[in-house]
Recover the amino acids of this structure.
């Protein structure tokens, strides 16, 4: 591109320079010759009165011509054939001037001559000759042409250099964008470009950066979805392992246990792969095709319906209570009577409860008691899971995604935290009254269902109270 732009600038500037400078050079030469001819005519006209007066006295006329003569330019041709001064014009041109009694000017060998006829009487005509040397006709022309030629060359070189610099700027910006695109295609998701060059290339650079950010965001979302989905599978896998342990040594139990171990190992591999930084993995890796927040990928999709935390938590605690009874764990559940709607899908909320309760079974010894409670505040629903185990020594590290000190994948608390933040809530870790860890998850109430659900709940409570009153009267 740089060569093309430089060539175009060279051709265009050369054509412009030639179209202007060639006529200007010719006009300059013509102007110099015209000025020289006008000077010769004026000098010849100044000699005419002396010729008329002193034509009969050649000696006096010769003295006048000698005083006016400059380098032998002036001469007077008398009717008797004598010439005063230095003659340069050919005889035929002099005869024509005498015969036609008209002024003549023309190029002669060595320069240019001007002939002015001077009638002395009816039969006699003298001719005043003014000679201009060739050097005077071209005086300053060569120097002016040289200056104009240098100016044209400088103009052409300057335009080529400017075109080359502009081309280099465009090429540099295009090459940077091309290299960044190739790097992004090779899997370097951290590559970005500094928008430079013309406005169009700067806009392309900004669009590339936005695209790279969006690609990184989507791949991160898919990566988290794969890890979270794999972690969800650990809940039924844990239940299956506990159930197998309760069955005891029966035919095929060893094979079932080995299959469970293999499945758990595969899940751990999937989670580890999903947690690997995107910049170190090829884009072709199988990271999954979903996203944890469907609205982030599909903006037109409807938001999930509100679900009741107390009802769903009671259902999931009922599931875990069977395993707790088998392990000798005391399980307690307490929930508010008020409605607890949150804007979360049922499976997301169930995964959050399973992750928190599953951590109790996974990280505390058998026989450790735990409790689950659901309360409602003015703006949120608070889910609390606490146990009597050893607790969490470093809460800040436990909340880091993929970080675990207990040999697990480290995603359970992150699943709960992400679910809470999606409802504008939060998660905190503290010490339980049972002696172990206390995980408190605040979930934001569904904003568009608070009033409606509140009225429905109060209406149902009034109907229930009325039914109880009528039964007592009966």
């Amino acid at each position: 591109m740089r060569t093309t732009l430089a060539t175009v600038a060279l051709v265009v500037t050369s054509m412009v320079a030639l179209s202007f400078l060639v006529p200007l050079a010719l006009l300059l030469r013509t102007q110099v010759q015209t000025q020289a001819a006008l000077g010769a005519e004026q000098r010849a006209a100044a000699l005419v009165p002396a010729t008329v007066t002193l034509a009969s006295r050649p000696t006096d006329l010769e003295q006048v011509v000698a005083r006016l003569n400059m380098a032998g330019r002036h001469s007077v041709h008398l009717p008797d054939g004598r010439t005063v001064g230095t003659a340069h014009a050919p005889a035929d041109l002099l005869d024509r001037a005498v015969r036609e009694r008209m002024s003549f000017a023309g190029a002669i060998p060595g320069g240019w001559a001007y002939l002015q006829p001077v009638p002395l009487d009816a039969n006699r005509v003298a001719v005043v000759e003014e000679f201009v040397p060739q050097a005077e006709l071209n005086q300053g022309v060569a120097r002016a042409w040289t200056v104009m030629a240098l100016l044209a060359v400088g103009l052409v070189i300057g335009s080529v250099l400017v075109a080359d610099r502009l081309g280099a700027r465009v090429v540099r910006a295009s090459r940077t964008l091309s290299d960044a695109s190739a790097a992004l295609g090779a899997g370097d998701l951290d590559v970005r470009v500094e928008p430079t060059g013309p406005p169009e290339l700067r806009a392309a650079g900004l669009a590339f950066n936005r695209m790279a950010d969006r690609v990184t965001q989507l791949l991160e979302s898919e990566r988290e979805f794969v890890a979270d989905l794999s972690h969800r599978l650990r809940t039924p896998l844990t239940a299956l392992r506990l159930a197998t342990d309760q069955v005891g040594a029966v035919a095929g139990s060893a094979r079932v246990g080995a299959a469970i171990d293999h499945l758990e190992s595969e899940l751990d591999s999937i989670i580890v792969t999903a947690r690997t930084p995107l910049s170190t993995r090829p884009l072709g890796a199988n990271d999954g095709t979903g996203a944890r927040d469907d609205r982030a990928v599909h903006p037109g999709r409807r938001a999930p319906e509100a679900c009741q935390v107390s009802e769903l938590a009671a259902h999931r605690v009922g599931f875990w209570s069977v395993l707790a009874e088998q392990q000798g764990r005391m399980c307690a559940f307490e929930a508010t009577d008020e409605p607890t709607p949150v804007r979360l899908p049922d499976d997301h909320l169930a995964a959050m409860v399973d992750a928190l309760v599953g951590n109790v079974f996974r990280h505390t010894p058998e026989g450790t008691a735990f409790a689950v409670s659901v309360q409602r505040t003015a703006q949120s629903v608070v889910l609390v899971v606490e146990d009597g185990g050893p607790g969490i020594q470093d809460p800040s590290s436990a909340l880091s995604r993929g970080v675990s000190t207990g040999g697990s994948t480290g995603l359970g608390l992150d699943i709960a935290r992400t679910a809470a933040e999606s409802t504008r809530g939060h998660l905190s870790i503290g010490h339980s009254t049972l002696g172990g860890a206390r995980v408190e998850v605040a979930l934001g109430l569904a904003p568009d269902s608070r009033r409606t659900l509140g009225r429905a709940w109060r209406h149902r409570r009034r109907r229930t109270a009325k039914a109880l009153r009528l039964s007592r009267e009966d």
